[in-house]
Amino acid sequence: MAVKEEFLPKWIAWEITRRCNLQCIHCRSSSTIESEQGDFSTEDGKRLLDDISKLSKPTVVLTGGEPLLREDIWELAEYGTKLGFRMCIATNGTLVDDEVCRRMKEVGIRMVSLSLDGSTPEIHDDFRKQPGAFEGVVRATELFRKHGIPFLINSSFTKRNAFDIPNVYKKARELGAKAWYMFIVLPVGRGEEANAELLNDKEAEYWLNWHYELEKELILKGDNTILVRPTCAPHYYRIFYQNAKRDGLDLKRRNLVFGTGGGKGCVAGQSIAYIDCHGWLRPCSYFPESDVNVFDVPFHKAWFESKIMQDMRKIEEFKGRCGVCEYVKICNGCRVRAYWKYGDYMQEDPICNYVPVKMRIGLKSPGLDLSKKESGGI
Ligand code: SF4
Ligand code: SF4
């Protein structure tokens, strides 16, 4: 079977444990210290990495929960490195010490991602529900700098902390992050309970426009100190294009070596995927459903056989505004937000308020009665 290069895995997040020592309000898996460890053995884990390598040599991010709580993390990471994968770790930083850094280097960890959701201990610790979490992140960045381990910072935002976005960016830069990802929280996991706090379409648009100005300034100055990207806001690619056109600029965006998107807003199920601690394969970590388990069906088969994964690649079958949008090939819309709003992941992304040209000139879109659409987000 001829396989389109764009539909091969380039980035996989693998939840190696669900246990976590924090209880963040937006956590996709509602993890706690008592959550299950994950059913798979070290040998099963290595077999999974072998299966992935039959398709490609992606970036593999070991995540959780808190992945450092899993004892065989170094064995799995080293195995992945030997297979030629770019192995990364996503940690909350609180368990990082000199020994952890030494092991990271030993097994070839290429990048670590940390979460920082506030520029001060008060804001971050309130979001993370853990006094001392902020200090844990700052201490981890000091250790990474000392040991020469590159790290990036993910920052999650809701109405609770969005006011602090510019300061968090400055803090990430000051701490020496190679990249800063501004993540607009989705309605999943514990985040579902916090739905009232989610940014709506207008607020998201405001902050994505702010982000465009930031990225524009960095590009125009030739400032490569830190790379910036919003994550899980695919319509940023539409906003970036529209604003650059308005400004009469031909802005060359930097590529992320360890990024997920490339030249497109969302590539869930197309070139990225998520495997949970029980082996369920999903298009991304926030996707609520799975129809295949990689401990039953080997990854290199599951990647193609899963109907959900196949659907993610059928851009021409998207519905609503995304179905007729002239930006769909660079944006894709968020399939998770579509699912939560309409119960159908092929529907339009409700956090984007763009009305495509074809709709404005009266062409009908399949599958959505716009007269019933509420405004103001999800
Ligand atoms: S589907 Fe939505 S949540 Fe998943 S990676 Fe894409 S933008 Fe993010
Ligand atoms: S309508 Fe859909 S495809 Fe078009 S910009 Fe918005 S989210 Fe992207």
Automatic annotation (TrEMBL):
InterPro entries: 4Fe4S-binding_SPASM_dom, Aldolase_TIM, Elp3/MiaA/NifB-like_rSAM, PqqE-like, Radical_SAM_PqqE_MftC-like, rSAM, rSAM_sf. Its cofactor is [4Fe-4S] cluster. The keyword Nucleotide-binding does not apply. CDD domains: Radical_SAM, SPASM_MftC-like. The keyword Signal does not apply. Keywords: 4Fe-4S, Iron, Iron-sulfur, Metal-binding, S-adenosyl-L-methionine. One of its GO terms (molecular function) is 4 iron, 4 sulfur cluster binding. Residues 6-217 form the Radical SAM core domain. Pfam families: Radical_SAM. PANTHER family: PQQA PEPTIDE CYCLASE, RADICAL SAM DOMAIN PROTEIN. This is Radical SAM additional 4Fe4S-binding SPASM domain-containing protein. It comes from Balnearium lithotrophicum.
